[in-house]
Amino acid sequence: MQFLTLVLVPAENQDIPATVTQLMAPYDVERTVPARKEYVPHDELDYLLEVYEPYGLRREDIDAVVAALQENTGYVCGHDTGGFWYMTTENPQGHWDGWRLQSLPNDSWPTTAPLPEGPYPAAVITPDGAWHDMGARWDMTDEQQVALRARLLELLSRYPAHLAVLLHCHS
What is the pLDDT of residue 168? Predict the structure, then answer.
């Protein structure tokens, strides 16, 4: 999936690409994080059981379900009072697996300047490193676009001494 992201950087910044890279880094889906336990969502577990049921898998056979999860995911899996789980080092904050800044002069502007007409960014990263999901999608109604534009303008107005840098992202 391709989407746009705005990264807000201080206007006096001398190395905008480096700052953008630094602000984007925590959201890289390929960034490895310390191993942690994730519980298997109920709908995914139900699907696994549906697929393996013809082969005799039953929810009540916890060891067999853990083995099927391990075979299916390739992760270390288990079960405890919270349910079925797997160990992962995948980035829980990951949103992108690639991004590019096409042209700094053409794809950046002061946050106080008028907002260019769509397409609108799916996210904005503020100077504190926070990812703000804007909910922009290709099939938005006119009302949704007006509401999104208002949210963007409100967010940009909090950073008057900054530049908005437009990135083309992929996930």
Answer: 96
> Residue 73 and residue 30: Cα distance in Å, rounded?
17
Instruction: Return the ∠ at Cα 27 (arms to 97 and 132), rounded to 5°.
Output: 120
Query: In terms of domains, do 76 and 110 share one?
Result: no
Write out the residue range of the structural domain in which residue 112 sits. 2-31+94-170
pTM of the prediction?
Answer: 0.80
**Which residues in the chain land under pLDDT 70?**
none
Q: What span, in angstroms and rounded, lies between the C-alpha atoms of 60 and 65?
A: 8
Mark whether 165 and 102 lie in a shared domain: yes
Residues 63-90 as b/e (b if ≥16 CB within 10 A, e otherwise) read eebbebbeeeeebebeeeeeebbbebee
Residue where the block lists tokens 């709908």? 43
Please tell me the total count of domains within the chain: 2
Q: Which residues contact 75 (CB under 8 A, 6 or more apart)?
A: 69, 86, 87, 88
Q: Are 98 and 165 within one domain?
A: yes
Distance CA 57, CA 86 (A): 18
Whole-angstrom Cα distance, residue 3 to residue 125? Answer: 14
